Every structure is written in C-alpha cells, then in structure tokens.
Amino acid sequence: MSGLPRPRVEPVDGLPTHVRVYEVAPRDGLQAETDILPTAVKAELCRRLYDAGSRDVEVTSFVPATWIPQFADAERLVAGLEVPPGGRAVALVPNLRGLHRALDAGIREVSVVVSASESFARANLNTSREGAIERAEEVVVAASDADVPVRGYVSMAFGDPWEGAVDPATVVDAVVRLHRAGCTTVAISDTIGVGTPGLTTRMVRDVLDAGIPVDAVALHLHDTYGQGLANVYAALSLGVAEFDSSVGGLGRCPYAKGATGNLATEDLVWMLHGLGIETGLDLEALAATTAWLSRVRGVGAPSNVATAFAAAASAVDTPNATGGSR
Ligand code: MG
Fold this sequence. Notes:
The chain is built from 12 helices and 8 strands. The protein is of the alpha/beta class and 326 residues long. Helix 8 (197-209) links the parallel strand 6 (185-189) and strand 7. The site of magnesium ion has 6 residues, from loops.
C-alpha cells in the first residue's frame, strides 16, 4: 500500500492540535445498513479499526434483538474483542436493562441517546422527548455508581425529517441535562445531515454559552448533503476537538434512501492531517479496512479517500491506464 497520496500539511492557527476521532462504524454504521454481518466479520472490523489506531470504537448496542436484529450478538461480539492498551470499546445502551447487560458482558464505557425532537423520540426511542432524557439520566446515575463513563448523543439536533427545523434551545436543554447528569461528552448529532457551517457555528456557540466546557462537546455529523467536513471545520474553529465518523462512511441515511449518511473516517482524517492535527490514525490502514469491508459485503463505500486510494493503487498497477489524461 506504499506510494499512496498523502495530504500536504498546512496548519491553521487557532485550531486544536489533537482531535479525538470517535469511530461509530460497528454500531451506528451497521445499524443503518440492511445486511446483518456475521459476528466474526464485526470482530474483524473492530480489530482492523484498533490496528489502524482507533482508540474510541462504539462496538455494538445492547438493545433488544426484537428492536434491532443487527445487534442480537452483542454479548458474543464483546466476549471475543481484543481491545488494545489505551483503547476503549463503547456500547450503546437504551435503558437500565441494556446497561446491566453491557456491564455483565464486560463493557466499561457506554453511550445513551436522547432526541432534540418529539417525533424522533416517538418513532425511534419508543418514548417522548422528555421520557428519553429521564431514561438517559437514570442510566447515567447507575453507570456512575459502577464507575462507568457515559457519552450522550442528542439526535436530530440540526433538523428532523418529520418536524423540519429544530429549535436550538431544545438542543441546548438536552445537552445541558445530559452534561449535568454526568455524561463525560455530549455529541450533538446531525442525524439527517442537514447542518451547514452557519448552523453548526450557531449550535456550538449556544451550547458553549450555556456553560458546557468545549472538551465535553463532540459533533456527530452526516455527509448527506456534502456538508460534513465544512461543518467539522466550523466546529474546529470554535475549539471542538472530538468528532464521530464511520470508516468507509458505513451507515446510510435511514430517512433518505440511497443517500450518504455518516461522515467517512478516512475523509475526516485526510482533512485533519492536512491541517497538521494529530489523530493517531493511519489513513492507509483505514482505507484498507474500507476496501476489505466492501469486498466482504459486496457493496461500495461512500468514502472519497478510499475511492481515490483505490484508483491511485490501480493506476500504479497499470501505468498507462489513464491514457494520457490531463
Ligand atoms: Mg450517524
């Protein structure tokens, strides 16, 4: 894999020097895909991500299999994981029962989801917006008793497929309550990818103005309308240094069939490394993971970097393949 392109490094003053890239492919990515992968393939995906330098990997979800069949193997997957020193295997838990399953399986860090909109809470969390926050607060209290850190997600923070625009005040309220309950980080989540840099700036500023420290803020961005990296840059400029992404862009948008969903980890890392920002991640290993998973699933990946690397590798194999393009 040597000889592949690399971003030219040109730092910009005032941006974070190190960014935590929180990998969501095995959980959020697979949840939005229709095929159910064998446990061994999921375990191999996690192993490759840790090998590529990922340290924060959301590996599965302890939801009832009747809700999401994709994660019926959560216990088996976790039992077989080898997490490297300094690495973390995070599991999403929907409620106290999910938390207890996760703890029994050996998980030592969990995440919870609440909704900025009423419709998403009803459709996906089987409760009201308020009910979801109260359920998350319960989980945070119980997890804290077990010394287990909790990461929070506020879904539909930038817009909702049923309600349209979401009031930033409801987002701030949810972030503040999760943070006050004890979440270490709260990921403001653009579940349908409708955020633009202006809206991202507004949202992050409102959250910081509400007293949330910047190191407790993460962004979970989607690339549905091609705005993912622009939104990352807007947030970097305000000091945010934790971003979610999914290797190969795994995880389509469940509310816009065929559209791109999660921001691809390789694309995020290309930009961060180009800015001279450390991530600890190996771009080539990430792109190789995407190529491997595409082969295994028989499905292409919406990742610009992985696509460009594959083209560069085949151009090296067949030097005249471009036919003298200019
Ligand atoms: Mg997502």
